[in-house]
Amino acid sequence: MTMSRIQKRNRARIAEAALEVFSRNGFRGATLDAIAGEAGLSKPNLIYYYPSKETIYEELLTGLLSRWLEPLTALDPAGEPEAEILGYVSRKLDLSRQMPRESRLFANEILRGAPLIAPHLTGPLHRLVAEKAAVIEGWAAAGRIAPVDGRQLIMSIWALTQHYVDADVQVRAVTGMADPLAGAAAHLETLFRRTLRG
Amino acid sequence: MTMSRIQKRNRARIAEAALEVFSRNGFRGATLDAIAGEAGLSKPNLIYYYPSKETIYEELLTGLLSRWLEPLTALDPAGEPEAEILGYVSRKLDLSRQMPRESRLFANEILRGAPLIAPHLTGPLHRLVAEKAAVIEGWAAAGRIAPVDGRQLIMSIWALTQHYVDADVQVRAVTGMADPLAGAAAHLETLFRRTLRG
DNA sequence: TGACAAATTGACCGTATGGTCAAAAAGACG
DNA sequence: CGTCTTTTTGACCATACGGTCAATTTGTCA
User: Fold this and answer.
1) Which long-range contacts (CB under 8 A, 24 or more apart) does B94-100 make?
2) Which of 119-138 (A) contact B at CB < 8 A?
3) Distance CA B118, CA B128 (A)
4) Cross-chain CB nearest to B122 (options A28, A173, A184)
5) Could you tell me if A158 and B162 are in contact, meaning their C-beta atoms sit under 8 angstroms apart?
6) Closest chain A residue to B125 measured between Cα atoms?
7) A155 near B174, Cβ under 8 Å?
8) pLDDT tens, position by position, B38-73
9) Disulfide-capable partner of B104 in A63, A121, B23, B65 (CB 3.0 to 4.6 Å)?
10) In chain B, what residues touch A65 (CB-CB under 8 Å)?
């Protein structure tokens, strides 16, 4: 079941094209023609590699999931609490900044009610968050940071870091800044630092 | 140009149906048939009231805009800074909670790059935010709250309050709570209180 | 009630879209 | 080169969708 040279090349092209098109137009707004065009293939050729539009979308999403959670996974229970959490915020913001298409892709999926990745949310993601939330609350119980609900804190971080990318137009329009992400980093650091110090 | 009894009733039905369908499926995912069905009208009858799908969507969005910004408008320069800002957070969260469809509708529009309300973002919204951000920064300069970027603070409030509604599925799955909004209020209050006290 | 306007609808149209299929072109390999 | 497999494509299909239109029904009001 080893992939041929051509298979490898075309599957990569398709993944890239699908990311582009799906993130820009959402699942329903994306068309096979658009993806095929972006990938430089004909529509039947596209369907030769993936049996359906949904399959392309699904494989794209699930393939990106683990990568998307890396920053949280890296939160180290043995580290210094404030540095760990602020480091997480910073890594998550960088990730969103560097992968805006992926960010939008997930935002879209979740806005739609996560029809495809719901199982993942209640399974692996739930467990990961529970684990890291426990770490954070352990720190809080030990008095190393101010008391805080770990799960809520993690979700705040998601909400804020993604907002700058997903609501890009709004952020830009309201701030009038060309690159609002710059100010964002500083703001989020003070916001969370103060939250952790109580 | 006064509206007949029937006009009034049907336009109201359509607005309600359109809100339901657009917020659940996004602009592209919504169909005239679905809206007509939800409103209890036939498709041609729907089009008798609104010339096109886009018109329905546009009127719906613009009609809701001012209402959506009420909480921020109500932020009082003469009030007590911390109470004003925390009050704003609370009002915004309540608004999202009580009008989840509207929240999703806007989230969707903005995720898509705000093709329709972009002018409003750079116009009235920009001005409103500038005004209120100045108020906040005035308070900060006077030492009544900790130093903070007003615009960034306002955007944080948007990002967080909307997240609980827009990413509802995710929040539910991750927390495992049936009504995550309850915990949200408490969390946001401590988060912003600490931010304002530095 | 009659006459005019407002409201409603079934049938229809053009286009877009997800997907199929048989046949042709390009690669792999002895 | 010749044979077999993989890849590619033009033509095609069924369905969904936004929207039109002529004709009918319903409401208004003198």
Assistant:
1) B95/B68, B95/B70, B95/B71, B95/B161, B96/B161, B96/B162, B96/B164, B96/B165, B97/B164, B97/B165, B97/B181, B100/B23, B100/B165, B100/B168
2) 121-122, 125-126, 129
3) 15
4) A173
5) no
6) A174
7) yes
8) 999 999 999 999 999 999 999 999 999 999 999 999
9) B23
10) none
